């Protein structure tokens, strides 16, 4: 969700801006959307590690909706660039013919 001052959060429930990824006045949407922070939060989310998917998610009642099944987690991870763990690259989807 983009707020009026440019801050980008992961969730429309985050009215106090706890899960802020950054500010669109400083970075592009692509940089934030595929950056290392959202990548680690996204992986934590699909693995049902809500305490690791942003400060707001650890207290959210909606997390009971469940996590991705293990095969879907594996599929997601197989199609993402995990090089951000070394601080390089992005977490965007890899090209189909890489
Ligand atoms: S777990 Fe809750 S706070 Fe986190 S993204 Fe989902 S709905 Fe939003």
Ends distance: 31 Å
What is the string of helix and strand elements? Answer: EEHHH
Proportion of β residues?
5-15%
Query: How many helical elements?
Result: 3
What does this 3D model show about the protein?
- The structure is a single chain.
- The protein has a two-stranded antiparallel ribbon with strand order 1-2.
- By secondary structure, it is α+β, with helices and mostly antiparallel strands.
- The longest helix has 11 residues, at 36-46.
- It has helices at 29-33, 36-46, 70-78, and strands at 7-9, 20-23.
- The protein is built from 3 helices and 2 strands, in the order ββααα.
- Helix content is 26%, strand content 7%.
- The chain is flat and about 40 Å long.
- It binds iron/sulfur cluster.
- Iron/sulfur cluster binds at residues 10-11, 13, 50, 56-57, 60, 62-63.
Topology readout:
Blueprint: E1 7-9, E2 20-23, H1 29-33, H2 36-46, H3 70-78
The structure holds iron/sulfur cluster.
Iron/sulfur cluster (SF4) is lined by residues 10-11, 13, 50, 56-57, 60, 62-63.
Summarize the structure in short.
The chain is an alpha+beta fold and 98 residues long. It contains 3 helices and 2 strands.
Features:
single chain; 98 residues; alpha+beta; two-stranded antiparallel ribbon; 3 helices; 26% helix; flat; disordered C terminus; binds iron/sulfur cluster
């Amino acid at each position: 969700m983009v707020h009026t001052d440019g801050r980008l959060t992961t969730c429309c429930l985050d009215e106090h801006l706890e899960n802020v990824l950054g500010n669109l006045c400083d970075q592009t949407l692509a940089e934030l959307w595929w950056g290392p922070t959202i990548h680690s939060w996204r992986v934590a989310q699909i693995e049902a590690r809500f305490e690791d998917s942003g400060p707001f998610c650890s207290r959210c009642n909606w997390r009971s909706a469940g996590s991705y099944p293990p095969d879907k987690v594996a599929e997601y991870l197989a199609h993402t660039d995990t090089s951000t763990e070394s601080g390089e690259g992005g977490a965007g989807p890899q090209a189909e013919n890489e």
